[in-house]
Amino acid sequence: MTTRHDALFQQRRAATPHEWTRRDALKLSGAAALLAGTSLPFAAPARAEAPKRGGTARIAFASTAPTVTLDPIKSSIIPDLTHIRQLGNELVAIGPNLDIEPELATDWEASADGSEWVFTLRRGVVFHNGKPMTSADVVYSMRRHLGAESESVWRAQMAQIEEVVAEGPHTVRFKLVAPNFEFPALLTSGRTIVIPEDHSDFVNFVGTGPFKLGEYRPRERTLFLRHEDFWAADRVHLDAIETFSVLDPVNRVNALLTGEADFIVGADLNALPRLQQSPDVETMFVRSGQNVHMVMMCDRAPTDSYDFRLAMKLLQDRTRVVEGVYKGRAQMGNDYLLSPNHKEFSREIPLRTYDPDKARFHLARAGVENPTVEIFTSTAAGPGAVEQVLMFQQTAAAGGVTVNVRQAPADSYWSAVWRKQPFHGSHWNMRPTAEMQWSQLYLSTASSNEIAFRDERVDRLVFAARAERDEAKRMEIWRDLQLIAHDEGGHMLAAHPDYIYAHAKRLRGLKPYQQGVGTSNIVTGIDLWLDA
User: Fold this and answer.
1) What is the distance between the alpha carbons of residues 368 and 330, in angstroms, rounded to a whole number?
2) How would DSSP label each residue in 265-295?
């Protein structure tokens, strides 16, 4: 196990070097939480007043896609991942500060070499149909990701698992292909939620979550009703949650201001004056590792050229992006998808600066002086995505580059543009660990390797980082991986925008999550309530 409370963990490791367990982690993270004045993992937060029961909270999403689904292993967009987290639970979850917290598992521990993990399941959990959850359900849910025939979008990540077996009704053992001391973080993906053994009717979804499916109208509206037998039912106060998509950012803000929505995903910075003038609306900013960036695919022209990619990176003025596009509400990016929020983030790599003269040199080496470039983007590609490309159109001109901006429809962007056009915008919410970020985006076999950058060095170093128990040595490996991505990869990342939460003041109990709304309690409905 790893934790943010590194000093305490190092003391514990020195005292007991044999195995690292979930119970050890809880003891130490609990002590650190008391010292820091924060709440313990999965403990109900302190409130000035008692929550009220009842009402329906309405969430307006910023995206949708023709491929919407309630099948966990196929879920790939925010509405899907939100829905399945309202309906189900993972074995472990990520908390607001990136700590791994118990969910359907109460304890977990690794073997001495990190190649096997044993999870102890929570007792008394029942599915929406009244069936008790057992280890057989966990095994079935995990095995759906495994094997060449699996349709899972998380299959490449789950390929780390060689075998998953039940050892009694409340114990599950994972045997890994190779050691991974950060393996539990892999299971925090919503795609790994537990469903009943042999369940396959996802239009009539059955899970263990705080809400059960009331009405499902794909790409329109979905209604979730409180699961009265939820294992933490005392923390579910809403009667229902209703979700729908409003793709246009102006219309989405209007939905909140007129009372049609209680929470909107992806509030626009330009709308802040209107939002902050409303007596019924509250905004909240969360410093995060969110990634809104441009993708240069390394397997097709013109972005298959190293010198061309480097020239484009040198023509992005990240200071102007942070100050101009995000009004200072962002952290500076450095052309790889890891932020200062991550403990693995390397501050040894110099921040790339805007340099049109050097960019011209690399364009000449690539044999494409004064090129015309098409960049595809959309409001669906993240907050500020369109504005970033329009600003790049200006800054690239100093290097002799003409940028034609192609703005694609939001409702089909992820199916029609993403990973299809050589140069396009993309958006990723923060992953809790570097290992999860690299496993999903940089490994040669990664299911979402959007830059199509495949390098044996990256694969070898990721495997080495997983197997390294020593924290300091693991950080050195992650520094090397960031350097490769910074120098050679196909990501142009100028900024990590803060998340902007906008919600009706009557919606209470919302907690700021560094990973964004996809993992927050607005998704699960836990601890939320509506004031009169």
Assistant:
1) 33
2) SS--GGGHHHHHH-TTEEEEEE----EEEEE
Rounded to the nearest angstrom, the gap between the alpha carbon of residue 15 and the centroid of all alpha carbons in its chain is 35
Order of strands, edge to edge, in the sheet holding 171-176?
105-110, 116-121, 171-176, 161-166
Q: How many residues does the chain have?
A: 532
Distance separating the N- and C-terminal Cα atoms of the chain = 43
Put simply, whether the predicted model's pTM sits higher than 0.90 gets the answer no
The domain made up of 211-286+499-532 has a fold known as D-Maltodextrin-Binding Protein; domain 2 (3.40.190)
Smallest CA-to-CA distance from 63 within 279, 243, 328 is with: 243
**Which pLDDT value is given to residue 197?**
97
pLDDT digits over 99-139, tens only? 899 999 999 999 999 999 999 999 999 999 999 999 999 99
CATH number of 291-497: 3.10.105.10
Cβ 169 vs Cβ 135: under 8 Å:
yes
Q: Residue ranges per domain, the chain?
A: 89-208, 211-286+499-532, 291-497
What's 443's DSSP letter?
S
- pLDDT exceeds 50 at position 13: no
89-208 is classed CATH 3.30.559.10: no
Q: Could you give the count of Cα atoms lying within 13 Å of 78 in the half-sphere of its Cβ?
A: 29
> Which three-class secondary structure state does DSSP give residue 15?
helix
Residue range 42-52, pLDDT digits in tens: 334 444 578 99
Contacts of 348 (CB under 8 A, 6+ apart): 479
Residues contacting residue 22 through CB under 8 Å, at least 6 positions apart: 1, 102, 105, 106, 107, 108, 109, 120
User: pLDDT tens digits for 179-227?
Assistant: 999 999 999 988 999 999 999 999 999 999 999 999 988 877 899 999 9
Query: β-strands 529-530, 171-176: how paired?
Result: unpaired
